[in-house]
Specification:
The protein is mainly α. It is built from 6 helices and no strands. Helix 5 runs antiparallel to helix 6.
Amino acid sequence: MSFKYIIPIIIIIVSNVVYHVTTKNIPKEVNSFLSLAITYMTGMIVAVAMYCVTSKQNNILTDIHKINWTSYVVGLTIVGVEMGFLYMYRLGWDISKGSLITSVSLAILLIIIGALFYKEHIGLYQIVGIVFCIVGLIFVNFK
């Protein structure tokens, strides 16, 4: 496996660690939606800057016409993800349990969605993995 294949995984893991630690530390007295607005403003500045650095043509007016409905849906769902995590932490969830439960549950759902809608193969190993995930969720939630 080439290092180029691993780089995105490393970026996701590092970004997720920083994301969860900082989200858990957003002051409770700060309005959730204002916090998200600042978050998205920061993200927009970084994304536009990265577009300018990486785009060969640097013609945003031409490129914006190539965008379809998916970018808008991703934008809406990101708000749901962000609000869910923010409220989860404000309600007192442990950083270790909350993120683990959501990630494992998401992984199980995406395996099923991959099989149903994208014709991805689910074999014996994947089924055993799902069972281990479910058992793991049960053990993590025991007190």
